[in-house]
């Protein structure tokens, strides 16, 4: 074998290794996972830093970092009562300034309470205190302005926004994609308010539903693709979805989520003037996307999560 052939063989093998995914930490922390069938790949996972209060091995949280030219995100499962401290540790460590919550928060089993929904109220958990400073309610979503403090660090009160979108209650009943798109635009505006408009910002946007895969993946990918379209006048739907799926298990496995994303992208393109939103071709494209939901999917029991 020539030197060049050997180098190619080694490069091919290294490439195979790069595509491996590991779940050791997921398997070692069953009590911290909401679902046994929603894996967390070690590749791209958030690793919590240990302070004097934390056990040396307590670094696990079911959350994944996704950073691209078109967005900086953490995709996470909603906190459980027993992982609420980990939730706040992650928020503090990553300097989170915006949380996008894609569930109504009406069912405590879906999400442990991590903030109060009344002005002036506060929630205290271990070394963290979260006070609700202001609330703004709009048709599509409600924005909460919070103040979070850590008793370990004096004189460091941080502003934290929560954008709550309660209208996608059941995964099989898709929301209005136009409304979904407005929530994404609201998130962009809040990122600017919080100083996160620069993609190189060290502060990602934290997005969660329940499992952190279905609604969460639809939101993150729609946001990234709309930004790509706006900045490059092009988009790569399959490439983007495949890339995110490499790091966050279960993203876009549901056809409803995929069609919500596609229609939102189409409507964003029309709103930007890239396509004629009144043309017959555009209307046919919308109809094709919507009709795909009625085609039976292969059952994978995902409605349980």
TrEMBL record:
Entry keywords, A to Z: Receptor
Gene3D superfamilies documented for this protein: Protein tyrosine phosphatase superfamily
Superkingdom assignment: Eukaryota
MF (Gene Ontology): protein tyrosine phosphatase activity
Residues annotated as domain Tyrosine-protein phosphatase: 29-268
CDD domains: PTPc
Every Tyrosine specific protein phosphatases domain range: 178-259
Cited PROSITE patterns: TYR_PHOSPHATASE_2, TYR_PHOSPHATASE_PTP
Protein name: Tyrosine-protein phosphatase non-receptor type 22
Organism of origin: Ascaris suum (Pig roundworm)
């Amino acid at each position: 074998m020539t030197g060049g052939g050997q180098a190619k063989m080694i490069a091919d093998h290294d490439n195979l290794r790069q595509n491996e995914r590991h779940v050791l930490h997921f398997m070692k922390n069953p009590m911290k996972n909401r679902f046994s069938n929603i894996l967390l790949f070690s590749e791209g996972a958030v690793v919590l830093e240990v302070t004097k209060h934390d056990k040396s091995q307590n670094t696990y949280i079911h959350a994944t970092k996704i950073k691209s030219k078109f967005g900086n995100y953490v995709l996470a499962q909603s906190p459980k009562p027993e992982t609420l401290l980990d939730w706040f540790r992650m928020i503090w460590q990553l300097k989170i300034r915006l949380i996008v919550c894609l569930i109504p928060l009406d069912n405590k089993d879906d999400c442990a309470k991590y903030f109060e929904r009344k002005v002036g109220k506060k929630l205290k958990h271990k070394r963290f205190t979260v006070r609700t400073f202001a609330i703004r309610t709009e048709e599509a979503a409600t924005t909460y302005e919070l103040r979070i403090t850590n008793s370990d660090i004096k004189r460091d009160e941080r502003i934290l926004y929560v954008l709550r979108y309660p209208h996608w209650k059941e995964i099989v009943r898709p929301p209005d994609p136009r409304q979904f798109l407005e929530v994404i635009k609201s998130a962009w505006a809040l990122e600017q308010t919080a100083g996160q408009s620069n993609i190189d910002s060290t502060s990602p946007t934290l997005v969660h539903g329940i499992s952190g895969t279905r609604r969460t993946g639809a939101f993150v990918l729609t946001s990234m693709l709309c930004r790509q379209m706006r900045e490059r006048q092009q988009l790569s739907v399959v490439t983007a979805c495949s890339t995110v799926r490499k790091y966050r298990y279960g993203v876009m496995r549901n056809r409803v989520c995929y069609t919500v994303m596609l229609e939102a992208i189409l409507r964003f393109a029309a709103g930007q003037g890239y396509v004629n939103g009144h043309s017959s071709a555009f209307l046919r494209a919308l109809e094709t996307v919507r009709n795909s939901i009625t085609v039976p999917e292969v059952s994978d029991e995902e409605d349980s999560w």
